[in-house]
Amino acid sequence: MKKTTTGLFLDTAFAAALFIKVFSAGFSYFCVLDDYVQYGCYPLYDNLSRVYFGIGTASNRPLAAFFDPAVWGAFFPNMVFALLILCALLFLSAKLFDRCFTMCGIAVTPFFYAVYLLLPLGFEGTYWISASSRIVVGLFFTALTVYLLITYIKERKAWQLLLYAVCSLASFGFYESVTVLSGLVQGLIILKFTFDEKQYKRLWLLAIPALCTAAVLVYYKLAAHIGALGSRAAEFSVTHIGARLGELFSQFGYIFTAGLYRTTAAGFLDGLKILMQNGVFGIVISILILCVSVLCAYAGGKYKLFAEAKLCVPLGLLLIVLPLLPNILVPDVWLTYRSIVVCLPGFCVLFAPLLALAFQNRCAKTAALFLLTSVFLVGCVNEVHTYKAVSELDGQIVNEVLQHLDDEVLAGKKETVLVLSQEVITPQTSFYKDHVKSVFYADWAVTGAVRACARNIKIKTITPVYSLENVDTEGKQVLYMDEFYHVTEETNE
C-alpha cells in the first residue's frame, strides 16, 4: 500500500509538472510551420485520398499521415485539445518505459521522468504537434509494445501475444527513428529473457519485429513514388555513408553541447526574465513551478535506484545511436532538437549506474531532483513563450495578408508575391535549423498558414521574396510588408 501511494504521489507530481511545462503561457497551443498545413489545410479537402495519394503524405510514416487530417486535424483551430491528448500519451509512455526498465533490472524512475518529460532540449519533439504527433505517438506504441512483450513472456496469454504483434506493427508507422528503437528494444528484450531463463524456444518471437520490419520496408518501396512527396522515400541511398555518418555525429555533438546549453542553461535565465516580466501571472507560474518541483523531489527521493553497468552501458549506447541511423540514408543529414527525443530513454539507461552510485543518499537525491525539475521547467517557460511569440507574430501578418488578397486570389485564379522588407524573426535563445521558425521563410509555409486561417484551400501559392528582381509578377497580386510587419498593396519606397 505504501509503495502504491508513493507511486501515485510521484505520478501526480510529474503529471502536474508536464502540465505546467506546456501551459506556462496559458491554456493555449501556438501553431507554427507545418501545423497549419497538416491540421489546418489537409482537412479542408472533401476527399482525403487527395491528401494521402495526390499530395502523397501516405508515402511517408503512413500511420502519422493518416492521423494528420483524420484525427488531429479535427481539432483545428483548437489544437490545445490535441496537445492534451499527446501529453497524456507522453506520460503513459514514460510510465510504460519505466515499468519495462524496472522489470529488466534498471530502476531510475524519478530521474527518467524528469529527463524524458521535462528536458527543454526535447521540448520541440514533445510540444510542437507536427513533430509530437509522430514522435510521442510512436514512442507510446513502442513502450506499449515492449510492455506487452514482457508480460506475454511472463504470463503466456494469447491475447497478450496478439496485442503485442498489433502494437509492434503500429509502432513502425510514425517515425523512422522510433521504428528502429522499437525493433531494437523488442529484439534485445527477447534475447535477454531467452538466455537469462534458458528458454530457447522463445527465439521464435524475433519473427514478429522481423516481419514488421519487412512489411515497412516493402511498404516504403511500393509507396516511394506516390504523389508529390513520394520522392522523399525514393531518395534513400547507401552511397557516401561514411561522410553522412560523420555529419550525423557532428550535428549530434552540436545539439548536446551548444543546443543543450542554449535550451537549458541560457533558457533557464531567459525563462526567469520572462517570469519576472509577466506580473501576477508570472508570479503564479513561479510558485507553481516551485511547488511542483518540491513535490517531484520529495516523492522521487523515496525511490531506490539500482542498475548494473555491464548491462546499462552497452544497452544505453545502442538505444542512443542506432535510432539515429536512418538519418544517414538520405542525401542531406538533418538532425534536429526533436530528433533526440527518441534517444532520451537510451541516455537514462546509459547513466543509470552512475545515478544509482551518486545518489544513494536520499537528501542528495532529493536535492538533485528539485534542481533538475525546477531548472527544466523554467527552461520550458522560455521555450513555450518562444512558440507564443513566433505564432502570434505570424498570425498578425497572416491576417494582414488576408485583408489585402483580392477576389481572384481568394477564388484560386492567380498567385501572390509578398515582398518582405526584412526577415520575419522574433528574439529567441536558440536558433537552430527550423526550431520555431516563422512561416514567412518559405512559400509552402506561408501559403499553408494563409489557407488554414482563411479556411480556403483554393488559394494558390504565396511566395515571400526580398526583392522583385528576377521575379515573374505577371498575372500575380503583389503585396508589400514594411519593417513594422504591416502589409500593403503599394511599396513605401
UniProtKB/TrEMBL annotation:
The keyword Transmembrane applies. The keyword Transmembrane applies. Keywords: Membrane, Transmembrane, Transmembrane helix. The chain crosses the membrane at residues 7-30, 70-93, 100-119, 131-150, 162-191, 203-220, 241-261, 281-299, 311-329, 335-359. This is Glucosyltransferase domain-containing protein.
